[in-house]
Specification:
With about 500 residues, the protein is α/β, with parallel strands linked by helices. It is built from 10 helices and 18 strands. Strand 4, helix 6 and strand 5 form a beta-alpha-beta unit. Helix 7 packs parallel to helix 8 and helix 9 crosses helix 10. The radius of gyration is 24 Å and the shape is elongated. It binds ligand H79. Ligand H79 binds next to loops.
Length: about 500
């Protein structure tokens, strides 16, 4: 279905395709000089301290990841072969498609049903507060108008529109924060790519690339493109994906360049490596990205985010029907937030420009849950413990905000809930003043003993899954001291599993 006839393209596109055709080692179609004309920030710019710039992100807790690119056209099938790696955005690598052949997909990219406002509406409906778009994935195609290469969505496709511009505008108009995903040191299109020393690079086209080639690619293409993104779209977030090709000096150079242009932009940890950072706080980022779909085992003592997929693939995959339920999405969100993290949940729009209906259906259900229970998510932190096993509702979770602790029951309790962590013993300075279940008007009866707080169960369920009790305290000493943002963070050994998958 995604392998249909090549649509008619105008002469300009044909010319761009011609330029792209003779993909020489010098990548002749590209002007690799830095012409971004970036504007330096002034000292009065907001968000110059980490504490200032991370605030919106920390409060947001839930964002939309969007994987959209040329790979959305084959959508997991190349020349009638279903590619079986699961990730449709990896098809060029998996099928060893020559760059010249893959580049012809650009002439087919015509997502006439794309409507940036419709996408932001889906995100807002789900209760998401930010959006991160793949502006360049590993395939090397730029989903923004770049002066550094004609191999970009505005110059090489019949669509001609700068989708990054449209989405960043739509986000800012609708109150969502906007982030740019950028694959910083992997590029299967460019002969300089990451030197092709790494096993996941394009060795079928460029078997002889060297480390020095990467240095040139980094200095003359990747870093200037990041600067272009900062200057032209003023993103709130830079989301790097990478494989550790950069030297420490290159990471430092990239970081300083970013801060100079846009001090307030939030940066994820893959700027410096997919490994779990050795040092906390890590020097060149504002938060830690865990591995794809890898949820930390406990609070990390530093802000973190899980990039999760809704099925297996991140890019649209026509044969991937492995959708998780809305209930599972909420379960993961609660799991993450109870450990002080954010959830960046992915959708993979089609080559027509539509978010798949199964995603919309699930996000609508999640949004309904958030309408009732969002206050237990937004602006909260991990509490002193993130979970407890209960007799009546299995694994219950906690979050905290101001003088409240939220007790989140993933299943409807079959009898009264006893929360041991909320017994008087553990909270000598805190007095409970009110208890309710979010979305319910029924009175919750409660009794606090030394070794636990007993909560009655309302007659009616206020929502379909994940039920939240809010416990209010009258203390200023905060029964709810968060575990995650202490001044001297602990090393995150429990969640460390060696090199994280990117
Ligand atoms: O953009 C998404 C992934 O494409 C990207 N990160 C998220 C956010 C990513 N880059 N690298 N990796 C994920 C890890 C690579 C995993 C691989 Fe495989 C194992 C590549 C080949 C074998 C998984 C299985 C992907 C293809 C097959």
């Amino acid at each position: 279905m995604r392998q249909g006839r090549i649509p008619h393209v105008g002469w300009k596109v044909a010319a761009a395709a011609l330029l792209l055709g003779p993909l020489t080692r010098a990548d002749a179609a590209e002007d690799l000089s830095n012409k971004t004309g970036a504007v330096a920030a002034t000292a009065s710019d907001p968000g110059t301290t980490r504490e200032q710039r991370i605030q919106w992100w920390r409060d947001a807790r839930f964002g939309m990841f969007i994987h959209w690119g040329l790979y959305s056209i084959p959508a997991g099938v190349w020349k009638d072969k279903v590619h079986d790696t699961g990730y449709s955005e990896w098809i060029m690598f998996a099928e060893k498609i020559p760059a010249k052949e893959y580049a012809q997909l650009a002439a087919k990219f015509n997502p006439v049903k794309f409507d940036a406002n419709a996408w932001t509406e889906v995100a807002r409906m789900a209760g998401m507060k930010y959006m991160v778009l793949t502006t360049k994935h590993h395939d090397g195609f730029s989903m923004f108008k770049s002066r550094l290469t004609p191999y970009n969505v505005a110059d090489a496709t019949p669509f001609k529109r700068d989708v990054t511009r449209e989405l960043s505008d739509a986000c800012h108009d609708s109150g969502l924060r906007f982030g740019c995903y950028y694959s910083i040191d992997r590029d299967w299109y460019r002969p300089q790519g990451p030197g092709n020393h790494y096993k996941q690079n394009n060795v079928w086209d460029y078997p002889d690339s060297k480390r020095e080639d990467f240095d040139r690619y980094f200095a003359t293409f990747a870093k200037p493109q990041v600067e272009e993104l900062l200057t032209n779209y003023r993103p709130d977030l830079l989301w790097f994906d990478e494989i550790d090709m950069k030297t420490d000096a290159q990471v430092e150079e990239l970081y300083q360049g970013i801060r100079k242009l846009r001090p307030q932009v939030v940066i994820n940890s893959r700027i410096q490596g997919c490994r779990f950072p050795d040092k906390i706080p890590p020097p060149h980022c504002d938060y830690i990205s865990t591995g794809d779909n890898e949820i930390a085992g406990k609070a990390l003592g530093f802000e973190w985010e899980n990039p999760g997929s809704m099925n297996t693939s991140y890019g649209y995959n026509q044969n991937d029907h492995n959708w998780v339920s809305a209930q599972e999405i909420v379960r993961r969100l609660v799991d993450i937030v109870s450990k002080g993290g954010n959830y960046l949940l992915n959708v993979g729009p089609t080559s027509e420009g539509l978010i798949p209906q199964p995603c919309i259906d699930r996000l609508a259900e999640v949004g309904t849950w958030m309408e009732t229970n969002g206050e237990a998510i937004y602006g909260t932190s991990a509490w002193k413990v993130f979970h407890e096993k209960s007799d009546s509702s299995g694994d219950i979770r906690f979050t905290t905000k101001a003088n409240s602790v939220y007790v989140i029951c993933q299943t409807w309790p079959d009898k009264e809930v006893v929360v041991r962590a909320l017994g008087k013993q553990g909270l000598p300075d805190a007095k409970i003043v009110a208890v309710r279940m979010l979305g319910s008007k029924e009175e919750v009866k409660w009794q606090q003993a030394d070794d636990g707080l007993t909560l009655s169960v309302p007659q009616a369920q206020p929502c379909r899954f994940a039920f939240v009790y809010r416990i209010d305290f009258n203390t200023t000493k905060r029964a709810s001291r968060p575990a995650s943002f202490s001044r001297r963070p602990r090393a995150a050994t429990a969640a460390r599993k060696g090199p994280a998958k990117s």
